[in-house]
Design a protein that fits this description.
Order of helices and strands: HEHEHE
Shape: globular
Number of helices: 3
Largest sheet: 3 strands, mixed
Amino acid sequence: MARAFTVHQFVALVEETLPRMAQGRRVGVALVTGVLEPFFDEDVPPAEGRVLLARTMRSLDATAARGGFPVVATTHRADEPLARLAEERARDVRDVGSTLVRGPQRSLDAFA
């Protein structure tokens, strides 16, 4: 899943589109890139962002449990308060460090 344009579109992708896409299919893994970035939108009040992020993490966990597949969510904002909130809500967190890649996204930190 790629990042949506707004935080509300992102939440809709996680809550509605991902479960629908996984329904009736064999899914090996769901990759959700840039999971924190939508929550840093200056138009989203911090309190609303925290609520929406917690809701998003619960939804990802529920979808993974129902579908029997892991969800790998990536971010490059590992030191931010929202990252700590995401880590608290994630079932399992792995710091894979920064990996240099050729292309538009230069580094990637991931948690699963």
